[in-house]
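Example S7 (structure tokens).
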């Protein structure tokens, strides 16, 4: 069993999907948890299910707002204040349309959450890691950060940015013991498509129909594996898909 006993892990976008799976996996490994999400009800529901580890602090926060990020982290109780692990998971996609057809709100949602939000949280947490000369940042990217597909130009651009930020951060932290990783999954069955299509459940279900996508726990286990390598080891990047997916758009369907 991998152990993170004595470590404090902060997961953004923790209320559902990959973020919630990471919370469960990290709790089972013994980490103290700091969890945030935009919506309080699903976040509180998640916390109520974390029976493996009672050391949990949670707060609502929209990572798009740097003031909310700063306020939430500055209010951490002393037992949770020194963050050893940051999982930048908060992210989303809006619509599936051409770059020139995207609404301004869609563009803002993706760029502000996936890029700026990740930067706001990183800049708030990493200086403490540098001072203590320990820590690990795990950014949840996507295979969309390695490819581009029709209708996904803006989303793909944000995930390419996550890859660039991850590589740049590692360079900026050269000479410290702080580790930096990106875990880039392909198709994962979560609320991702429901959010992308703004609640159109039929269209969202079609994304996962007749295939075997990854599940959130697969990604969370990959995150845990990266976190629990020997301290001399930095896993720079993990790219993972289900066996049914061979590229961003090539997915085996059984019908």
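Recovered sequence:
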């Amino acid at each position: 069993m991998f152990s993170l006993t004595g470590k404090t892990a902060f997961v953004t976008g923790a209320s559902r999907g990959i973020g919630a799976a990471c919370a469960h996996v990290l709790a089972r490994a013994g980490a103290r948890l700091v969890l945030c999400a935009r919506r309080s009800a699903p976040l509180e529901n998640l916390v109520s299910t974390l029976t493996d580890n009672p050391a949990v602090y949670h707060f609502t926060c929209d990572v798009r707002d740097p003031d909310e990020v700063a306020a939430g982290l500055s209010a951490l109780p002393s037992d949770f204040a020194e963050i050893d692990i940051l999982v930048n998971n908060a992210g989303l996609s809006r619509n599936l349309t051409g770059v020139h057809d995207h609404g301004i709100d869609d563009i803002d949602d993706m760029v502000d959450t996936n890029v700026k939000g990740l930067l706001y949280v990183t800049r708030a947490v990493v200086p403490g890691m540098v001072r203590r000369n320990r820590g690990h940042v795990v950014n949840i990217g996507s295979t969309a950060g390695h490819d581009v597909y029709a209708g996904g130009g803006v989303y793909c651009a944000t995930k390419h940015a996550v890859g660039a930020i991850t590589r740049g951060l590692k360079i900026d932290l050269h000479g410290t013991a702080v580790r930096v990783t990106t875990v880039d999954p392909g198709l994962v069955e979560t609320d991702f498509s429901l959010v992308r299509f703004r609640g159109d459940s039929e269209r969202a279900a079609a994304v996962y129909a007749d295939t075997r996508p990854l599940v959130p726990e697969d990604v969370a286990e990959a995150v845990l594996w990266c976190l629990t390598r020997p301290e001399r080891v930095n896993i720079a990047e993990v790219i993972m898909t289900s066996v049914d997916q061979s590229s961003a758009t090539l997915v085996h369907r059984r019908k």
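Notes on this example. The beta strands are 8-11, 32-37, 56-60, 85-88, 136-140, 179-185, 237-240.
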